[in-house]
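Budget justification, computational time. The allocation requested in the original proposal was used primarily to generate structure tokens for proteins on the priority list. As evidence of use, we reproduce two of the resulting records. The first is shown immediately below.
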Amino acid sequence: MTAALTELTLGQARDGLAKGEFSSRELTEAHIAAVEGARDLNAFITETPERALAMADASDARRGNGEAGAMDGIPIAVKDLYCTDGVRTTAASRILESFVPPYESSVTANLWRAGAVMLGKTNMDEFAMGSANMFSFKGPAINPWRRDGDGPPLVPGGSSGGSAAAVAARVALGAIGTDTGGSIRQPASFCGVVGMKPTYGRCSRWGIVAFASSLDQAGPLARSVRDCAIMLGAMAGHDPRDSTSVDRPVPDYEAALGGGVKGLRVGIPAEYRVDDMPEEIERLWAQGVEWMKGQGAEAVDISLPHTRYALPAYYIVAPAEASSNLARYDGVKYGLRVPSDDLTEMYQKTRAAGFGPEVKRRVLIGTYVLSAGYYDAYYLKAQKLRTLIAADFRAAFQRVDVILTPTAPSAAFAVGEKMDDPIAMYLNDVFTVPASMAGLPAISIPAGLSAEGLPLGLHLIGRPFDEETVLRAAQAVEEAAGFTARPEGVGR
């Protein structure tokens, strides 16, 4: 029974709970055991089994009284960037290693009100800065997938790598991550799961440790499009504490599914055919176009001319905002403090000891581009490019309903690979960053395997606040792809 419970999708588990086939406690116990059995993946920074069982018992009591919520009794994992009341929140950084927030983030509070159960806090790149989950004070999270013939362990992608690995390894029914430039979608592609970034402003950022405030957005990772729709419905909503939270009704995302894509216009942007793109990625993209056409959609060639500037502009805007946001970690109010007789020296020693190499790199870049004499040349120019990128998408959406692209330029790579070349690491986000710069909803769906037997994802981008169409199109890709592969040794 235990193994069978961890094999369920989130939607199947919800239905089984509603029918009384098992209790939330039984479901949660099975997943706690799975978490403990998969510690070699290093997917969690903090496990919370006692809290999970207490939440499961409370869920069972509510269900017995006929008061079950939309996600009642469902065990999920939480990226360690979300503040959780009374539970350590580290952002995978030594500087916050012992920080225990006295408050709950809005997104997690919404999930707990819907009845979800927290299994623990997942590993990630420090302060969400990374594309491989290599930059964590807890050490790297490991992808449960291996290349055919085994080989070295692989990265799960980043920064939400622990969340993606937990879902792929069947130790959580779903997980929440954050996406700044692709940090949900790229690890979803690497781990063979579904990952969605909703429109900027759809989910509250209140209580999420900030990286780049104009880009950060909460989103779900799960094993099906339907599961992501269920989770997003529970996560989203207006929050007056977040000035960027949009006050508009949250649709029933699950009800939007099943409508098919007949008559939908799917944009195929010429600029996403980048130099040296692997042939297998190109083939999968072409296959995705055929899948959509086979279900009645119309493929439309489009141009997004400023796409090539998205990545360099992102790596000016995001570090600039990070430099500002991370200035608060100085050893005075919370987190690590390295004592010194001199205040300035205490700041310096604390930040030197508390921040890892990638965070230091981005803070230095951000401070540089915001400095006198360089603000206009770099930061202001990047913001102007961001406006042009958004205008390209607006023009494209006059002609099409969704845009189809690859998710990532490769399958998962080995732990330690690309570590000596930050530019090569940054190029992992080349397909996901443009939608982030424009604040658009986007989703990655597992759609095939590489020549080495590793998952590859397809990526759909939609109009602002039109998550329903994105999810509907994603379900069409999911059904056509029929992706049932799983990491060796996981499940069955």
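The second record produced under the same allocation is shown here.
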Amino acid sequence: MRVAQWEIRTGRSLERLLNFSDAVVAVAITILALPLVDIGGPKPGQNVLDVLVANLGHIITFISTFFVVAIMWGIHNRVMNLLNGFDSTIFWLNICWLIGFVFLPWPASMWAGGDDMAAWETNTPFTTDGTGVLYWWTLAYISAMGSLVAVHISRHPELIASDRKAFWQSLRSTRARYRGAAFFAIFILAGLATLVYSWLGYWVLLLMLPAGILLRPPRELRTARDSDAGLGE
């Protein structure tokens, strides 16, 4: 069923939705750094290296989460920039996507400072307290919401700007359409891996690199995308 014309909001409404989304993600990604601000400087007899080692969990979690969030925001932003308007489904899927980002700093902070990370530093098995699963599966939830946005857009091409419909149809016919599902699976697997060793989650996360390369759009589509303002890599 096609979306009725009166249900599609365009122009200023779309611009406000995109600006609101960017602002929420920007605030959430900034909050991720707050646990680092609370870390004190070197105590007598210590140096900055001792502080870094003692807070390795917080530092690695912040860096990895920052880059993952940036990647997912970049993909979402490029998809949303193709739209000429949005309907109520896009609006609520986008809200659910943003909720994940707002929620993320809490499990990230618990995961970085919990007993699981202490077990990681000693390289020993442990009985997980579940914070690793919550952290990684929150990322999986965000990835899933972003993928659902793309699925809905594919089912309602009237939401896409007229000069970008051919590009979107070409893109969705390539392996790039599986990238969201691949990232979702990686985050789910990373959460399960923490049930064995906490550090395994980060090694699983490295699968995003080959997945991102293998599932990236073909060169000609990337060139077509990057030729439009606001659709850069």
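A brief technical remark on that second record: The CA atoms of residues 96 and 145 lie 7 Å apart.
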